[in-house]
Amino acid sequence: MAWFFPAAWKSFFNVTINLHLITFTIDWFDALMLLCNVFRQLMGEELEALTLKELQQLERQLDTSLRLMRSRKANVSQRELREERRDRSSPVPDQTVGLCSFSDISHVMDKK
Questions:
Q1: Is the pLDDT of residue 76 over 90?
Q2: Which residues contact 5 (CB under 8 A, 6 or more apart)?
């Protein structure tokens, strides 16, 4: 026995699904616009509309971000210095071991 939706139910579900998709899209668009506004504010644009409390919060966010970036930079620099010191302290193999001068083999050539 085949089970099916009546035409009225089918159109109801299509409308409901479409409304959910539209609502979802509007919510994402609103979130995107909010993120764009926050980004502009972090970049120093459109600060006139902010209250004193919002400006103070923005300043704290910028200070925290700057401290984090400086800390990461210091960690990277320290790691690179340690690696460079380690590379310098490791014994470098003598690359001239297999080389010899012409005078060293000239006596061999004279015998022929």
A1: yes
A2: 13
Query: Angle CA(102)–CA(108)–CA(110) in degrees, nearest 5?
Result: 95
Q: Please tell me whether residue 8 adopts helix, strand or coil conformation.
A: helix
Question: What is the DSSP annotation of 25-58?
Answer: HHHHHHHHHHHHHHHHHHTT-S-TT--HHHHHHH
Tell me whether residue 102 is exposed, middle or buried, using C-beta atoms within 10 angstroms of its C-beta: 0 to 12, 13 to 18, 19 or more. exposed
Query: pTM value?
Result: 0.46
Rg of the chain, C-alpha, whole Å: 36
Quote the distance between the C-alpha of residue 54 and its chain's center: 27
Helix (H) and strand (E) counts in the chain: 3, 0
Going by C-alpha positions, the residue among 108, 112, 92, 90 that lies closest to residue 100 is: 108
pLDDT digit string, tens, across residues 92-105: 555 555 555 555 55
